[in-house]
Amino acid sequence: MTAPLSPALQSRVDDFIAAKGLRRTRQRDVIIQAAFNTTDHFTADELWERARRIDPTSSRATLYRTLSLLVESGLLKEIDLGRDQTYYDPNFVDHPHHNHLICLDCQKVVEFEDIHMSLLEDCITRRLGFRPETSSVRIEASCDEWRLKGSCSRRRA
Amino acid sequence: MTAPLSPALQSRVDDFIAAKGLRRTRQRDVIIQAAFNTTDHFTADELWERARRIDPTSSRATLYRTLSLLVESGLLKEIDLGRDQTYYDPNFVDHPHHNHLICLDCQKVVEFEDIHMSLLEDCITRRLGFRPETSSVRIEASCDEWRLKGSCSRRRA
DNA sequence: GTTTCTGCAAAGGTTTTGCAACAAA
DNA sequence: TTTGTTGCAAAACCTTTGCAGAAAC
Known about the structure:
The structure is a homodimer.
Chain A: H1 7-20, H2 26-36, H3 44-54, H4 60-73, E1 77-79, E2 87-89, E3 99-103, E4 109-112, H5 115-127, E5 130-143, H6 144-149
Parallel strand pairs in A: 3-5
Antiparallel strand pairs in A: 1-2, 3-4
The structure holds a DNA duplex (25 and 25 nucleotides).
């Protein structure tokens, strides 16, 4: 579990650290590695668990402080999956305009990108007298597979 | 500040109370009245303040319990305005498909509805193998008025 | 050496809950 | 009466913060 960051990502991290006059520490490296190791969304606590598997000494305080920095830098985004907790999404670096579909049957989260959606948002926003900056779309849906077959490849139980 | 609920709304409230075998209490009436008195979005605490202006004896516990019921019944929806707190939106009863645009300059929240958006979401969702249930779109934008005139009719300061 | 960062533990803020008294049906 | 509801206070949760020691530069 010591897969290094991609060069592009590492370079964005380095740039951010340099621009803000921050220091590169073992704890930050571990947390960033844990965050970008996979494309899964995660809560603060899940990320803490993952980071501790790499290095058991990291603290929650540092985790939260690092999360703030990553969100501020744009490397990570907070997303609202309609659950109780805040989730973080590491995939905006590669796909800056994606959105989320959440299956109410199997809880699966599907990321999608659609140029028509972006254009339409732009159009709506300008007509209202604003200039679009960012947007997020969350679709909650039910699973065809679950409805038709009574089972779902993604459903856990 | 004792404006009664609209008949349509009152009837939906009554239906919900009857269907769940709940009781109609003074505290619930007051909270519901405070929630639907205006079309403003509010936090739990803001609603508590409003309710106390009508009847100062209501407690936070009852407020939270009533909020849960209203959300469960569909009369109220939790919305994510990108701020720290959860906001509640009382306008879904009249406009079940509306979305939100938030101005980054003046913090104004504009509600909009767009049939093309709904159709596109439907299309995207089905193509991914799901059936759409609900969706929410949040657009963050900057204010033309503020950018062009250096002032904004909605900006407080 | 300076300055920033970390971990701990305590504090903050919001929401939930157990329980005895109370009120609706 | 019976059953659901309320208010209180405590608990639960997640996140932030003050501070002294440790680590980066």
